[in-house]
Amino acid sequence: MKTLVICSGGLDSVSLAHVAAGTRELTRLVSFDYGQRHLKELDFAAAAARRLGVPHHVIDMRTIGAALTGSALTDDIDVPDGHYAEETMRITVVPNRNAIMLAVAYGIAAANGDEAVATAVHGGDHFIYPDCRPAFTEAFDRMQRAALDGYADVSLWTPFVHRTKADIVTEGAHHGTPFAATWSCYKGGAQHCGRCGTCVERREAFHLARVEDPTEYEDPDFWRQAIADHGGA
Question: What is the domain range of residue 48?
């Protein structure tokens, strides 16, 4: 099945791109510049497209992102440290971000004859991000089928939506994902900070998957305390 992958350059979406390349016909990667402070992730998405030999489309959504105020990912607000599943992480929500990106991706897919749009939303996102939950993805797929009825037949592929980030690491490793060539950190420094929610989640995922983590963190041990404070593994 001809499949477009929405790729941020992070561990989840780059792994998904490699899974798609190994199990489907990967046609293109689509990334979005919405004014995120960790913009360097797009360089990792571009590298993934080159590695996999497919086109890379970068959609300029900066004017839209500027209107979606109040998130630590776009505004001058400190990104909190700690576990992803903490109330403090709600400050990283960019309202309706996935819905907007998916709508654009569906249009690109329909215009290019692709049969599926893939996104790497996963079970660990459900607590914080409403537009990563199964209820949203299932409803969005139905809506887009109606929107394109009679013009194109494009489905939504979300293979990780009921799975954990550790599962993604396992699957990504199986398909040869070069994890060092992915970027997760929300703070966008020279290295992964090791303290923000997505760094903690990333480090924990490698630990649970029993896969070596090649990532260089500024604070490589903070995750253990964050997990303990949250009552995790």
Answer: 2-78+92-177
